[in-house]
Amino acid sequence: MRLLDTQVVGKYEGVTHDGNLKINIGENIIYTTLDNIMVIDQPELEQGIQEYNHDTSSIEKQLEFKNSIDLHMEILAPEIQLSSPSRVLSFQVDACRKFIDDAIANKSKVIHIIHGKGEGILKQEVKHLLESNDKIKFIISSKSGGAVEVWLKDL
Question: Is the pTM of this model over 0.70?
Answer without folding.
Answer: no
